[in-house]
Amino acid sequence: MSAHRNAPPRNAAAVPAATPAAVPAHVAIIMDGNGRWAQQRGLPRLEGHRRGSRTVRAITTAAFELGVRYLTLYAFSAENWNRPRDEVGGLMRLLEIFLRRELATLRKNQIRLLTIGRSDALPAPVRRQLAATIAATAAHTRGTLVLALNYGSRDEIADAANAYAAAVAAGREPPGGCTWETFARYLHTAAIPDPDLVIRTSGESRVSNFLLMQSAYAEFIFTPVLWPDFTKENLAAALETYARRERRFGLTSEQMKEKLEIRN
Ligand code: IPE
Ligand code: IPE
Ligand code: MG
Description:
By secondary structure, this protein is of the alpha/beta class. Helix 1 crosses helix 2, helix 2 packs parallel to helix 3 and helix 3 packs parallel to helix 4. One 3-methylbut-3-enyl trihydrogen diphosphate binds next to helix 1.
């Protein structure tokens, strides 16, 4: 009888080569609660989005100061097009203004901008500003800000499946050879590591079609704070909570401790 008979197949992909560091390399945030923030003050929802875009600027700077390397912000979902026309229009204008204003800060802090989502469906002025900011920051190496715009995880997976099928048809991928690693190269996130920590503000405990596959082994933190009220201190507290957790990637606690000892 083979000695390997009872050994289950190994899925090396889930376990990172190095044990996870205390500071998450990639933080992804579902920025929720702008509308409720405004409604609580008797203000129009758009005022909440305006205040939310200020928080985006503050948290982007804070995250990289705290040692995060990748920050992904869910700014507009594929489903958000179904909101009232005025709100969608206002959000698009805010996005354009944000991209224009943020360029100086991205330059100063040497942060590059990337985007995930079907950005080709965004209004032309936003697309132009997005392309300009991405090009102007492409050589920056201190950190990466990823904006999820017209993003939906299911759309992304459908896009990747189509691209993968086309690659098989063209002979660039072997038929029947699909693995998670090869398939992931066709996702919008191909150039971005998986998130280590996903934060959602506003008290909702759902992922709303955000990075469904990529967050397979992410830690989740749900906070009641509404996005316009979210501060650097809230982010630092989330990073502390993350640092106290033990990520096991399917291994035992003892195995993880062994890996940690090898690293230190
Ligand atoms: C998040 O705030 C911003 C976007 C989804 C664009 P919301 O606008 O969803 O705020 P709530 O959930 O209505 O409070
Ligand atoms: C998720 O928030 C999308 C963004 C933060 C951009 P939503 O407010 O759209 O999510 P649901 O509708 O509460 O699930
Ligand atoms: Mg919401």
